[in-house]
Amino acid sequence: MNGRPIVLAAGGTGGHLFPAEALARALVARGRSPVLFVDRRARDYLGAIDGVGMLTVAAGNPSAGGWAGRAGATFRLAAGTFEARSALARLTPGLVVGFGGYPSMPTVSAALSLRLPVLLHEQNAVLGRANRVFAGRAAVLAASFGGAALESWPRAARQRAVVTGNPVRPTIAAHARAPYAAPEEDGEIHLLVFGGSQGARILSEAVPSALSALP
To answer: Which of the residues 63, 64, 95, 214 has an alpha carbon 20 to 30 A from that of 78?
Structure first.
């Protein structure tokens, strides 16, 4: 890839966006010049990141809303693909990394049409819809989970998969160095429960029930 930029395509929810931010910061620390291709909501949410370029690409969810909403979303995805193709042709990146979610689809689609190398990252145990669309054409799929989770993926995706884990932002990783304060015998026990995407609901339902069953 030499000194060519690396494009990261993400957006929508934090589950897709934060791993892209974590990778972008890691690349900057290694002297690279990443460019984030995001939707408008993600750009407003993230704000500026030192050393990271940012470009807004039109996107939409074609499976949400009525027929009018789906048609509008499809039009925005097409417009976003045109925008991304023009920007990628200008940047000539050495690699395009897609993090799933509908906002990543225009950039990944444009990259494949330009025959640029594409790597997909899947944050969830189940391969998401956007990544599933491009799984057969990506050079590599980076998986957060191996084992049974990976076995549920389509064969074409499994053959290209490498288990990497999930990129974590430095501000979050820094908490791993925080000292552990053991609970006192009659003191409170503090728990951190985290998760997102479609996995958030089961945590909200199962964790309280599991805790109530403890002695």
So the answer is: 95
Coil, strand or helix at 9: strand
- Measured at the alpha carbon of residue 64, what is the angle toward residues 119 and 82, in degrees to the nearest 5? 50
Q: Render pLDDT for 86-99 as a digit per residue (tens, 0 to 9).
A: 999 999 999 999 99
Q: Which pTM does this prediction carry? A: 0.84
Query: E strand or H helix at 21, and its extent?
Result: helix 14-29
CB burial of 167-178 (b: ≥16 within 10 Å; e: otherwise) equals bbeeeeeeeeee
CA 172, CA 170: separation in Å to the nearest integer?
5
Whole-angstrom Cα distance, residue 6 to residue 24?
9
Q: Tell me the CA distances in angstroms from 183 to 130, 159, 178, 180, one per residue in order.
A: 43, 46, 15, 9
**Alpha carbons 47 and 52: distance in angstroms, whole number:** 11
> What are the pLDDT digits (tens) for 151-195?
999 998 999 999 999 999 988 888 888 888 888 888 888 888 877
Return the SS3 of 140. Answer: strand
Helices 105-113 and 67-91: crossing angle in degrees, nearest 10, is 50
Residues recorded for the chain: 215
Sheet containing 95-98: give its strands across: 53-56, 34-38, 6-9, 95-98, 118-122, 140-143, 161-163
SS3 71: helix
Question: For residues 93 and 6, is the Cβ–Cβ distance under 8 A?
Answer: yes
Task: Specify the residue for token string 């470009």.
Answer: 55
Main-chain dihedrals φ then ψ at residue 163, nearest 5 degrees: -80, 115
